Amino acid sequence: MDVVKIKSYRDLYVWQLAKQLVKDVYEITNHFPKHEHYGLTQQVRRAAVSIPSNIAEGHARASRKEFLQFLSIALGSLAEVETQLEIAVDLAYIGNEDIALAAAKGDRLGKMMRTLIKTLKSIQPQVPSLQPLLKE
Prior knowledge:
CATH class: Mainly Alpha
Shape: elongated
Helix content: 55-70%
CATH topology: de novo design (two linked rop proteins)
Radius of gyration: 19 Å
């Protein structure tokens, strides 16, 4: 089995999917009432943008622990987006069918992020051998 080297956060499928979700959220919120422009519209858009942003920032950090922290923040932002879209449905700004694709994408993204978090937590840190550094 070939191992794919992750050189950039752009190589992470979770980041790519999160960016697609942002696009979906912007398209959905274009149908919100104009009086919500500075309310729910801006809030859900900021939360959506926060998801790929935190994945990217976490990947760029110096440690796995920091990456895990930023992935956790991204998961929180995803929950925020899902909640805000449901509120928009409750307020009759959009229908359930309008958010179906984004909701499915959000579910998939959440599962992928939880799997990534679980995988990162399970990897044992590699400690280089000190033997080559010791002189006889």
